[in-house]
Amino acid sequence: MITVSAPGKLLLMGEHAVVYGRPCIVTAVNARLSVSVEKRRDSGVVIDAPQVSDTKFVSRAIETVRARWKEEVSGITVHTKSEFSSSFGFGSSAAVTVAMVFALREFLGKKGTPGEIFELSYKTTKEVQRGGSGFDVAAATWGGALYYKNEGEVVEPMAVPPPPIIIGYTGVKADTMTIVRDVGKKRDSEPQKVERIFDAIGKLVEEARMHMGEGDWERVGKLFDFNQEYLRDLGVSSEKLEALILAAKNAGAWGAKLSGAGGSDCMIAITPQDRRQAVEKAIVAAGGEVLRFSLNAEGVRRDA
Ligand code: PMV
Fold it and tell me: Whose CA is nearest to atom 14 of ligand 1?
């Protein structure tokens, strides 16, 4: 039996603009998704994924690996297990795909680079859901904090300590692909305006990357606020997100924004140490749930 796990992710800055070639900054979270591959006596392929709403990513990953190594992948039972709910928007589809491709490569006894795991996994997720920048696949593959651009053309590990962030979950699951499509429609109808927003977000990401390197979290907080304004202009925020963001800011956060596609899912607040408790309390009082996960987690790995 082979067991592999891959981390979930939290998008810090650059959502939506990253789909159109601008950079983003993502960090892996220490909530992991595990995949075990076990040999069967017969030649069937059985997928046991009680927490995953659909097993398309697992089945498609099997196809990808078959095609890549031109070897039959059968006579296996696959079990998946997640340490986090797929509703958080932590990238369970990307994590399960990366873990699956890695596990099957081990199963076939092949070797290769993380870059190849990324390529095969990104190809798999694109086939299943069409669209998506692949930042979540990169986070699951390499882990840590990454500066990411252009469908993986640029993936640079950032040697920065985990930011002092509080994660607030709205309690509502958002459908990433619908929101990505809506932003695409907006870009079709107002190309200049939307491209300008993407450029501005890209610049904020560059600036944040510099200030993160210096550990200037107060400045990064300000950049979160500016980024959130542009996300509002794109129409991807929601009342619930705004309520949690406002509560965090009023309680002393340096800055706060939504994380991921928007619509719902999570918000993140950069917060000085002495305001953490107050900000957490305010998020809960505004109807949110505080998620406690550490950041910069390790990328995909074999556990057993
Ligand atoms: O909703 P999430 O956490 O999967 O993030 C989506 C981020 C987008 O930039 C909107 C889409 C993408 O694939 O980059």
Answer: 133
